[in-house]
Amino acid sequence: MKTNIRPVQFFVIICAVLFAPVTSVRAQSASVSDMIAQVNAVRTSTYGLSPLETDSALMSSAQAHAEYMASTGSCSHTGAGGTNAKQRMVNAGYGGGATVWGTENIYCGGRSVSEVVTWWQGDYWHLLPYKEAAYRSIGGGIATGADGQLYFVIDVAYTSGSAGSGSTSGGGSTAGTTGSSGSTSSTAAAAQRVVPIVTATLQPDGSLIHEVKQGQTYWGIGTAYGITAAEIKQLNGIPSNSTVLSIGQKLMIHGPYTATPVLSETPTSEPATETPTITQTPTITNTPTSTGTPTPRPLFEGAAGMQNLDRRGLGIGLVVVCVLGLGLMIVGGMRKKKKDEPEDYDPLNPPIDSL
Length: 355
Known about the structure:
This protein is of the alpha+beta class. Among the domains are: 32-160, CATH 3.40.33.10; 200-254, Membrane-bound Lytic Murein Transglycosylase D, Chain A. The protein has 10 helices and 6 strands; from the N terminus they run αβααβααββαβααβαα. The strands form 2 sheets. It has a 4-stranded mixed sheet. A two-stranded antiparallel ribbon has the order 5-6. β3 (137-144) and β4 (150-159) form a beta hairpin.
């Protein structure tokens, strides 16, 4: 049984390894095809032009540049070896030696294909693949960086003698435009067409106004000031579906500062409060009526004079009188006893009549 399981497991692992990359490539190819289809849909429905034809050489140059940006983490029209968009198209074999005119759009970020295709319609130079009748061929590429960021590229071109009818390019369009990386051209001529965004200076009232220069977009201006394209449109009363800016157009980034009112305490007059009048109710108090108390009269009128005597001296006098009286009584008693006893009385031999 072991010999049967091991070959099966080995076969499953081999299939998983072999078919996993194929699945990834197909999903990416489907996204590239969808991107090209959406560009052609805008080109035909909005501008009434014939759709661009997918070219294998342009597919190769666009995919190679997308993978180069993903591997280096850069977002620029300058590719491997310092090449520009037109050189990459020619090196990939486009034109077969004929004179080539081309343009390139790139976008670096994690947005979906539909969002990228819509964003490319935000300014004149990114609109060239959509509205220029001279362009005949298109190729696209999408790659994912190590950090998961997506890199989108479309290469659009035509050769001498193959320009579409109604061309307004004059046979000389070599513009290269960028997405989120800013304005970096694939040629020196294109570099002069896109003016770098320089943030404006605050007005005296605190407002911030940006003047649109050539090649600038809502997205690029918003990135420079730290706001979104939708916020710029809303602040300036521009329709949300507007994608075109005019050179010299004034865009308000934020309005004047509004002074913050300082709250001050305002004394509030309190309503007059009636002070209650206290009415005193008379309290009837019984006032005692003095009743004359008869003063006791002394037993004899002479006693009234004794009230003025010195009571201490009076007390001493009384004590002295009492002592004298007591002494007199004692002395009188002794004399009387002595008189009653006979002179010849002998206690040991009393008289007969005393027995």
